[in-house]
Structures
1.
Amino acid sequence: MLTDRLHFRQNPFCGALKLDRREWRLWLVLALTTWVALPRADAGSGSDVIWTGTASTDFEANANWGGSAPTSSTTKDTAVFTGSLTPFQASLTTNRGLNGIRFESSGWTLGGSGFTVQLAGGGSGGITTTNSSGTNTISAGILLNVLQSWSIATGGTLNLSGVLSSVDATRTLTVAGGGTTIFSGNNTYTSATNVTVGTLIAASNNALGTNASGTTVSSGATLGFQGGINYSTTEALTISGVGVGSAGAVENVSGVNSFAGTITLAAASTVGSASGTLTLSGAITAGANLLTVTGAGDTTFSGIVSGSAGLTKTGAGTLTVSGVNTYTGGSTINAGTVVINSASSLGNTSGGLTLNAGTLKVATGFTTTRTITLGDAASTISVDPAQTFTVGTAIGGTGSLTKAGTGTLTLTAANTFSGQTTVTSGTLSANADSALGSTTKITVNTGGSLLLGASTAGSNRIGNSAEIALAGGTFDTGGFSETVGKLTLSASSTLNFGSGPSLLTFDGTSSLGSSTLTILNWTGVIGAAGGTDRLLFDNSSFVGGTSTNQILFNIGGAYYTADFKTIDGNTVEAVAGMSVVPEPSTIFAVGLLGLLIGWREAVPSLGSPFRSSRKGWK
């Protein structure tokens, strides 16, 4: 064998190693073979090549790179865009490879729709931005050749409008840095997406590629939606944390958007909507992690929400929950509005509802046995038109209750909340003993009605010392009897006796101010106490501060002023008196007519401009 003839001898050219000619040739062949077989020393260690853009938009033209375009290799050069914008922006004219792309200032566009850059991205490759403001755009396609980790600087934005694809599903893409990345192309990559820092915005359907591998949002990062998209691809999404600036691990940035994928909470997480509306139609599996919804925009959960830690609503926006939800941890409304349409909207009824400074809005009426706790002076229950929401268990807490919406809220349990009650619109019906037994004051505004409903435990629906403050609204006895605190009026209001015999007693410290109380459906003998319906004030001092024409009885369309009858020594009963007065609107019309007649009579003496010297005009 040739190797058998290789031996060492002294030689001035090689020092101690001496080779004959044949042996030298053999050594050279072996050395060259070994050099070719070994990895290149410069693999993946190419240069940063800066775009100068002085000649044209052609990415391949050497003159646009100050001498030599980047090598078309995924292990070589990084294309760098820096400083002030050049006369020409770069645009691909062929498919090519790059180790990386780096933007060091904003306003750049790497064009070439229909062409693709294949990125290896090892080491310092991939896509990197260092600009702290402004936007850079890549409209060319990007092919992921290896695992990618892109770093987008805080304050800056990178918009990828071209197609993002991958060699296979193992090329995981990680989006990092504190900035914003926008995927607005119809992407086809099959690998997983990890958002570890900053915001990734899906601005098109399939922005996150196929649903083969899913997307994970780490704590402190955000996946956003914008552009009015219907994201019908059922991407599996795993989220953690509150997101960038506590805006949400999932956030509706703007517009009306929807996402059909399933969402799994890996930790306590927040879904936000800055503006517009985000609809999540897939199942949300929270496990033992709290789900919070926030933001000034609106959010809809139409899929099933499950878990054991519950749901919390913050922010001024509206959350609509329409699925048959099974979560058991209860619900808390701290701000904004939560819209429900069934008993299961807020999960299993074993989980209570804490209503703080927010609104529970009932879109479709039903009866609930869920425990409700009021924790704020602005706790509101709103019921939509023609709907009835019945609460069959006790409402507790130290907060106040505000009834809104033109529908009816019916209370059929002995409630213990200690704050005040306000009816801004619609009807609040007290249908149980102590239904409003612990509230200190009930205010009924214009458009609102306080109704006494049927009770199996007698006539103590309202506490005996609770003030009834009518501010343009109606107190309707429903044909039942009740003893309450003082009556106060801040605007002309109505008292309706309903269709049955009623005995209504107010505290004698009542005051009508300068307003008028109109009595409807009163049954009794005109001018006589002790009728079927009775209106009592338990202190005769009420009469001294009240004019008889401040209480008007509407009987068959005719209006009668009040007559005060003293009974039982100190109790005063208001009944319809003998004086008949016109209906209030008639009084106004007659008064207006009188003013017009008086003005006409006064016109000639004032030198009216309607007079003319022409014959026949007076």
2.
Amino acid sequence: MRYLCMLSPSQFTRALRAKDACGRLGLTQSTIANEFQVTQSHISRILSGKVQHANKLFEDVCLFIERFSDTTLPSAVEALSHQDSPVFGECNERSLGPTIIRPISLPDELDEGYAGYVMRLNGLSSMKELDGRLRAWSGCADKSGREISRVELLSNVAGLTVREFVLRHTTLPLRRGITSYQPNLPHGSDQNKDMWWTVAMRATRPGAFFCKKCIQEDLSFHGRSYWRRAHQVPGLLSCEKHASPLSFCKDQEAFHQPPSHWVDQCETVDEVWAEEVMGNETVVRYLAICDGLMTRGQPFAVDHVSLALRTRAASLGIQTYSGKVVAPLLSDKVIDCCGRRWLALLMPTLAEKQERVILNRLDGVLYMSKASSNVLAYVLACAVIYPSADEALNALARPLGVIRKGTRRQQTRIAQNELTSAYAAAKGSYVETAKLLDVTFAAVAKRLSKMGLPNMVEAKKKNTRKALSAYLEEGCPLDVSAERGGLSLGEFGDVLRVIGVGAIKMLDWSELLLGKSLKRSTPLTPDAV
């Protein structure tokens, strides 16, 4: 049976060339079919020239293959043929691994979305398979994920340095925008490679967000839809470009497929609510500050930011210390300006807070020398107390002089809820609790021991938590439990005596001691508020 073909000679030749390119590049028909969400037989007919006319799908498929053939892939294949593949860590051997398809990363493309695209193009079905293939390609197949991180592998696939990839495609510049941990290190710095595998590629909020209008434009211009990093900013409900509500899906592996895959399986933010949020000046400032942090190459130091916020808040009459509430609280100001419903997307504990009750996760940004919460608390504070995003960012970047370290707060100024919150945040360490509150060790040790909260030592050879867990949870004998935690019987006895004080006072601290009392404030998706 002969097949009626109405393609012009040039169109027929184009289809055969595309088929030949797929063979050379290792691009399977099933991979292309998944990308365009059509059957494999559709792709087979197109690449064989067995279609009646050159419709839009014909054009899109040919263009999709030609973009790889004309730009990305030859350079990648040529690099491999010259044994010039990337070398990682201590791997000094040239790559003997398989050829891989190396697509160009698009502007503001999210790291996880790019990883999913690389996975699909290479005919793989999981991130684990992708990691293994990329390590084999790099000549480091025997290395672990800790030794060769995924962000390092992807940056080389994209032809970028790790720092360039982190700044262009990850949300780390926002999540680490204000930090007390090595603030002098630029984002993506190789001076602390532990960050590459621990925090470089993490989600900023639950759900995967996209704009349906962006999908249409991307398919037309780029030949594929992709996940935008800007759409994943916590609290963002509308696309800045199209002023239309974002859609989202809650599948844990959503980023491994293109946004176009989820158009019929998603939920869309309520349009009225989205317009209301984007009309809120404080929320607009918050989002602009987030954008500013996302484009910075280095974080701000928490102690510097805290001092700047405290100085500004004091000039506005906002209470800048813990203890008895005698002035307007920053947390109440944030609730008044932003509204509880929207805040539940960022900090549910703040959205549920009672008026004139201190919430250290937010109010603490003004007086805690270490991070009181994640970066969003500091951004919310900036959005409330500064009139514009530019003024806020400039204030944080402006030198404030030398921060005096010698001045310590008096013990009597520390409220009990602040003390216990800091103790929990410090995982029971007296030393770290004192640092968080900027007080002396003696000031916290005396009060915490009276409250029945022991010093939870965590060192290489001593671990109070392990000893307590063995004794209280597993029912091990006293001497075995002490040995399990590397403590002497006398040291473990002191810990139990401190706990006994709390038991006598009928205070149930057991969950706090084992790290279970303070639940993390999990942000919500728009459909849950």
3.
Amino acid sequence: MADTAPLARQRNLRAKVEMIDPRWVVEKGDTRRGVLARVPRFAAENLVGKMGLGPAVEAVERYLPGPHNNEQFLYALTRDGYLSVLDHLAIQVDVRQGRPYGHLSNLRKTGLVDVPPELMEEYPALVGAGLWGRVTLRYRSARTKGEAPIFVVEFQPVTTGVPFEDFLNLRRTLSVDEWVDLLLFSLGYNPSVWAELPDPRRIKWLMLARLIPLVEPQVNLIELGPKNTGKTYLYRNVSDRTFVVSGGMTTPANLFVNLHTGEMGILGFTDCVVFDEVAGLAIQDIYGTMSILKDYMESGRYSRGNREYSADSSLVLLGNLTTEGGQPASYYTHFFRDLPPILLDTAVIDRLHMFIPGWEIPKLTPDALEAEWGLSMDAVGSIMSKLRLHSMDSEIAGIVARYPYRPGVTQRDRRALDKVLGGLLKILYPHETPSGSELHTLLGFAAELRQRVHNQLSKMAPGEFGDRVIGFEGIERQRPADFIRGVKWTSHDRRLNLEPRPGEITALMTRIDQNGDPVDGDIQVVEASVVTGPGGLQMTGFRGKAMEQSAQAAFHYIREHLTDFRLPGDALQGTTIAVHLVSIERRRDGPSAGLAFLLAMVSALTGRPVVPALAVTGEVTLHGEIEPVSGLSAKLYAAVRHGRLYAIVPEANRDELADIHHAFQDQLEVRMVGTVTEALREAFGLAPLPSPGKT
């Protein structure tokens, strides 16, 4: 029998809300279907609330321009001289001509339209981001120079405000769990569908955490997860003060200020800028733009030309991430691996205040979007705009006085914790500061969202970002699954960590993307075997030219020093050494696998396996010297994640190792070598061999 408890709680919650003011309740199901789905949910719900379902549907059918009727609207305007449309109107100011002009989103081919200056004074939100509303237009067949052919005569917004005190009174009557459900119903979700999942309360809180950039100024948020979890749905539908950039190219003029026209970019007139499908983001003038963006993420200020500007728009990065068993796939050495290279800068990542684990949010089924009632989304959007202007500084100061920041928390961590905590207080406790277990839960959740950012930083650059706990004293540290996860060992990992076979070894590599750019550290299993053949080296596996040349250099060194390896001088006659890179679908390149190739070949030729749980990196010269490598910290972290206990690295990397080894010293023993002789001694655990040649 189906559990009826969630439905009963839903009915009781609706009864409580209607007792305060039944006008607040909107029938959500009416706005999801038919022509009403062609306008944002907040606009559709407002129309239904004001007019009723039938008249709202008729208004959208009659007044909303679209591809199918755009020409008919334009013909009626030029024929009659007047036209009323339901559209999104945004106003910008031409500083050179000293006049405002408007842009209509749905009525195409109109170009810029003239607007009366008093319209901006009556509806300030029209400037920049714009508003949805009923727009009455006049066509001017005769006009003076500089006038647009179309003029806005009247504007009536479809959005309305909600008395803030009524909102607070409603919150006071509900428990925090009832309030969370009401907000989710109002946003179009049906939280009842998650009742049977292991932790439905956590799912609900993660969903509402997406609202933090809308209620708290200048919050930098990232969410990564599978597709179809509703990441973009919320931002597109809850407020007309949000601007969504879907992949593609963006420019400094679009984001900040157009130096030619003086017009503010989208950061200057929105509450929140959302970069959807961030993996496909491209930025014109990358280095200049990223420098400006880093300044803005830090301070809310940026410079263009010879002027400095300020804004408080939040930044949201949304991206996809592959999962296995409900958690990020085991091959991720850090979760930001799939971001575009322009964002894989630890200075950018450290400026992110919070990281929502989108992989924990269930995919949205039709049932999950079947909320039948709730507050109008327009009401929620208007309240969020008011909350954005409300400071929680005094409340946060009182909380921190009782629960100080943990030792070692940086200034950026503190700023992030304050931002996230302030947003959560506004969303969940706008009426009062919680206490007891509710406050503990809130503080732990806020700390987790920032801790997740730091966890990735410590994997990307462990020497700079060591392991530390971010949060508040006296509050238990949150330990979600991704905080304690390790890489799922493959069959190769298990064998190489316990009992490697002759001819196989772990090379530490740098993973590269489809453009050939380095992304992060990884391991590469190298297998070598001796087969009958014409002689020489034979390689298989997806590799680049530099890697192939490093294998050839290792082979040539072995061929010239066979006796130094206690092998007969004719050991390679009639013999081919076959070298294979396991997991050939992943492209590899670079010379740093040279030492791994050499040790694998020596192992195959002598029949001796290397010591268990070993990983190596280093370039081998023809004289048997081990050259330094790049990306050492990321490579060593990859070794740790795959359970390797020992690593051989070049002596020439000693200075770099001194900065980073403290992050691994309890998990990985690192041995530094300068020559092939030293590498052989460490790899095979042998007594010193005779010096080969010039080493």
4.
Amino acid sequence: MPDIEGPTCAIHKGMPIIAECINCGRPICSACKDEFGYFCSHECLKASKSTVDHEAKIEFQKQMESTRKIIRTVSISLLGILALVIVAGFWWFLAWYFDKSGSMAWEWKKSISPSKFHYLKIESGRILFKSGPVVCAIDQKTGQAQVIAENKLLNDYNKLIQTTPDGALLAGEKSVIFLSYQGKILWRKDFKHPVSKYASDENHAVIITRQRFTKDEYTMMRVRNKFKTPETTMYGYQLSNGTEAWKKKLLETESIVSGISGGNGMFAYVISRRDKTGKKRDNYYYNPGKMTLEVAKFRNGLLRWRIQLKSYLSWGPYVCKDRVMFILNKRLAAVAKSGKVLWTLPGSPSPALKNGKLEVSGNRVLANNYQSVACIDIDKGEKLWSKKISFGMQMELWKDKVYYLTSVVRDDIKKEEKMKIPPTFEQLQDKDMSRTLNKLKNLRKYVSVIVCLDSSTGKELWRRKRIRGSIFPRDKFVVTVGDAGLGGMLSMIGGSKNPISIVSELETSNGKLQFKRKSPKALIGPFRIIDDMLIGLIYSKDNNSGGFSSFGRAIRAEGLIAIRLK
């Protein structure tokens, strides 16, 4: 490396130059200065003393020496700063280059129908899943897949009811099967009518079948003005061996008018009972009859308790721990396993309870109606807090935090800025599409934001802009998977043939962005986070492929992909 202080003294070898001789201008060093002053020799000193401006020359040389020192100090400082910048930039480049967060760990290419894909079990570093007629196991680290079993019958069972340590319960059109993780069908039950509803726990399952009338049968009933109630039957099975524990056929005047929820040895549902008067107005469609909330045992189907209802439930019933929760007449209620009402909470103080969606996690219930959110303590039956939000799209309750996506007005947009419309849209002349485009143009004024709240107090902990997609909370990080286009609809319908997904990861404590990268492949759910990897399906758009189609373009899954996380 060259010397930053310039040439050395000609008289004293190796000494740096600090000034110039007053008389002849020859460079001098500090040793020359101590011996001759600001001169290079005695001759120049004597010659300078004979001049009139000797003192002025000495003063000038002092100023020059001071200036040289300042220049030397500044030069050294600038070079030091430049070296630090280079080192920091190189370090950042190495960290970015070798940081594999957000990159693809592996991919497994195989044509998959998303509606027929189910994760079954994750064990010993392997991911077991069912894809149509095939049961596969894929190595979590390498992505090497192994076909465990292939059976054409499995292609008809695409509803996953329950997974247990021994296998998985799957429902088809008019039958259910219990599939082992080795790909063998341990038992199968066929029914007369299609499977309508189901609930299960780790040991038992309840299957409800309901008669489905044909179009001609509906026409005949309308002509005769005599409507029949579809035949409904409830079956109870043991998951271990498929033994039918009990069977209950509902009367002609009975029908189940709610979903069914189960857990902790019991299941809950709402049943309607009509009085059979024979009058024409008393038909299935216009007379719901008297409704009852019933809770029964999985083991034998016997009732634990029942509650007479005056109207339909707005939400529920939902079995949570050792209680049943539901919303009736804008009141959230919790009933114990014994039938005792533990508490009720009016919905008027919390608009989110009136017509919102409820999510249960741990000992808390989160209510969201897209304009307000409320959090309730299940054990105490107390509203912890409620808060108005501008627009809450997806909301997740995870341990002591609440995450939700909303939108805020952009502060960096210009009035004259126009939204670029994909060529596919420009070719469409449909009036409905024009209205949709106008709405999408208005959405251009907003930017998506992820917000984190304290589930105990509702206090906002942090927020971060330009984060979109689905939320997947973890212990230390929260992962989001979104589309890279302007909006999901634009990118899926009119964007390029190869859509792009963006994967982001933020710290749960402060919202610090760990990484935000474009995925090498477009992603579609269902997603699973396993250790430090995000597992999802690969999808692309093809005009000639089957499946879901939007304006002539269909979406199909092409396999599995694993994205590295922090």
